[in-house]
């Protein structure tokens, strides 16, 4: 049985253990779809990724992303964590400060800024558009946001590879103390074929300018401690609604404290939306797994 290097990562962490878990199989050559799915089911992480040689010369590497139940084309923290693993394992080096990730969603650029423990990776989010907005955009939105005092922007359904409802809360304290009605959010997600709802509040804090809570009931997750995709759509909505606002060029996000995590994400806006942050390697070892069995 040939051992394979395996990394268990803490993605988007502000403090140790504060980010999102990710398992990365650094060399999945010879693994088929069923074998990858079996291993992802065994790890039982929200996502496990598998690194492969690229199939196009423009790409630095190729990645496949699996939940315990199915393969998905794209997700934020698995993309950032996989890029971190590529650099740690020496699989590819950035060219002009960029890695190019090949995945089922296409060829995606990832910025590499800094080195070592301070290194940050930022992924370019897919183009996004506002599908509908306002409290009357759907009859179930009011129930999903029960207990929230609205902020200055109305709720909106935003599409950017995936559909999320985005809503603003009046202030940080209210958002952190909010007790979501997960059943109501699940009904909204099912009725609108969306992942769920992500709620944000502006903050006056030296370390972050936005607080975010992401509730992807549409895929059976109660609350996500650090969501790159959701933050990309929030960034797109802010850029659309407030192109000259104080957050128009970017900001830092705090997420996950309400469920015992402490994640920090960076959002940069320069015509495109870039979302990223730091990744910490927690476990670096060898995987003994006979994929042929």
CATH topology term of the largest domain = Diaminopimelate Epimerase, Chain A, domain 1
Shape: globular
Distance between the termini: 11 Å
Structural class: alpha+beta
Whole-number mean pLDDT: 95
Low-confidence stretches: none
DSSP E strands, number: 17
Count of separate structural domains: 2
Q: How helix-rich are the residues, as a percent range?
A: 10-25%
How many helices does DSSP assign? 6
Please report which band the strand proportion falls in: under 5%, 5-15%, 15-25%, 25-35%, 35-45% or over 45%: 25-35%
The gyration radius over C-alpha positions equals 19 Å
What would you note in describing this structure?
This protein is of the alpha+beta class and 293 residues long. The protein has 6 helices and 17 strands. A hairpin with a 4-residue loop joins strand 4 and strand 5.
Summary, kept brief:
With 293 residues, the chain is an alpha+beta fold. The chain is built from six helices and 17 strands.
Task: Draw up the topology in text.
Elements: E1 4-11, E2 20-25, H1 33-43, E3 48-52, E4 61-66, E5 71-72, H2 76-88, E6 98-103, E7 106-113, E8 120-124, E9 129-133, H3 141-144, E10 156-159, E11 163-168, H4 172-177, H5 182-192, E12 197-202, E13 210-215, H6 228-241, E14 250-255, E15 263-269, E16 273-277, E17 279-287
Structural features:
single chain; 293 residues; alpha+beta; Diaminopimelate Epimerase, Chain A, domain 1; 2 domains; 17-stranded mixed beta sheet; 6 helices; globular
